[in-house]
Amino acid sequence: MESTLKRTWAEIDLDALAHNYRALRKQMGPDARFLGVVKADAYGHGSVEAARTLEELGAEYLAISNVDEARELRSAGIHLPILQLGLTPVDQIQVILDNRITQAVWCEAAAQAFSDAAVQAGGKMKTHIKLDTGMSRLGFQCDEAHFDASLEALVRVCALPGLDIEGVFTHFAVSDEAESSCRDYTLLQHDRFMNMIARLKARGITFPICHCANSGATAGYPQFAHDMFRPGIIMYGIGHQAGQLGLRPLMTLKTVVGSVKEFTEGTTISYGRTFRTDRTSRVGVLPIGYADGLHRMLSNKWRVWTPYGMAPLVGRVCMDMCMIDLTGLPEVKEGDAVEVYGPHNSVNDAAVLAETISYELTCAVSKRVPRIYYKNGKEIGRELLLRG
After folding, report:
1. CB 231 within 8 A of CB 215
2. pLDDT band, residue 385 (cuts 50/70/90)
3. Going along 250-321, which residue ranges are E strands?
4. DSSP run (H or E) holding 282
């Protein structure tokens, strides 16, 4: 669906993605493959355009979280290998095979079921084995209490006829945190990962691709590049580590000043009457609210950027609108565009105020917000996810 509505929109800078890609390649060295994580609609940035750009730049792999996301990429003409990181029911085996999806396998029962289904379908499922080294989520457990049992299970899994086992990987829990205890835990996880790989090698089992470097490890542990690294949120120039590597944010979320009114001292604004003017105030209404992805937790905390200065949010964020104080910004008028997040108004700062992480905020930018894509400084496409 296309829209001509100038209400609220997200500008996506694909030149910034290219800049970040090259910087991350340099960070991790020339020998490691680049896996770009484009799950959750590329963290709200648009998975198809992000994947297409990464493919053009020379990335070797992509990652998503479910088979529908993979089907979307294939239908858009994306040819790169796609690793499905999450849980997938075995009844999706034909979708996996038809769309050339590499499926993560996280336990022996799932591996056996996928192998049986693949054999019955007349094919082999390309697989990366997930090791749980301390995330305590999916994967064969590699802690000391479960290591030996997992080793034997993995030996059996690697002999299954319906699996084409290409890789092995793990995921770090605190690689993006700098405290010494977090560094110690990340090193422990890596040691467990390498120990399991070494023990399997001693049993005659090797893997063409070993990978463990998520965004945090890409920034803080480049020695963990191995055969492939898989930047997620950092690739989009978001998070506290992105700035340390000189990465640029892709998304600028914008809206317009829809109405401006003057209120007397003592007037309450919005639901719950949580804000009261302490002077004669000039207040603007913006057509963006929590249904667009502007978290209600930012009520009375955040601000928007205007060319004349910052304008604070006043009162509670509504579903479709919010209010800003323009008393000190007489130049701002109805119809002016303002920046909600972007290069002048970091989403990282908004995340701190909302007591969350920055990628929750970009993922929350809803499907009714058009994405406008820019390359070489020019608009190359628009996308609105609402049904036409």
Report:
1. yes
2. confident
3. 251-256, 259-263, 268-269, 275-276, 281-286, 303-306, 309-314
4. strand 281-286
Strand spans (E) along 257-355:
259-263, 268-269, 275-276, 281-286, 303-306, 309-314, 322-325, 337-341
Nearest-5° angle of CA 105, CA 94, CA 168? 20
372 three-class SS: strand
In contact, 271 and 315? CB cutoff 8 Å: yes
- Would you state the structure tokens that stand for residue 121, as one six-digit string? 């379908």
Q: How many helices (H) and strands (E) does the chain have?
A: 12, 21
Residues assigned a catalytic role: 39, 271
| Residue 155 vs residues 205, 208, 225: alpha-carbon distances, Å | 8, 16, 25
pLDDT of residue 209: 98
CA angle in degrees (0–180, nearest 5) for 269-270-271: 135
- Residue 383, token pair as written in the block: 């996308």
Tens-place pLDDT, residues 201-220: 999 999 999 999 999 999 99
Instruction: Using DSSP, state whether 300 is helix, strand or coil.
Output: coil
pLDDT at residue 128 is higher than 80: yes
Tell how strand 322-325 and strand 281-286 pair up.
antiparallel
Q: Which two tokens stand for residue 247?
A: 């990465």
Provide the β-strand partners of residue 323: 285, 314
Give me the pLDDT at residue 344, please: 95
CA distance 96 to 70: 9
- Residue pair 257/334 in contact by the 8 Å Cβ criterion: yes
Which element (helix H / strand E) includes 229? Answer: strand 228-229
CA dihedral 162, 81, 359, 257 (to 10 degrees): -130
**Closest to 121 (Cα-Cα) out of 146, 96, 142, 140:** 96
| This model's pTM is above 0.90 | yes
Classify 189 as helix, strand or coil. helix
CB atoms within 10 A of CB 122: 8
Q: Are 233 and 239 in contact (CB under 8 A)?
A: yes
| Selection from 359, 345, 294, 301 nearest residue 8 by Cα | 294
Largest CA distance in the chain: 79
224-282 residue pLDDT tens: 999 999 999 999 999 989 999 999 999 999 999 999 999 999 999 999 999 999 999 99
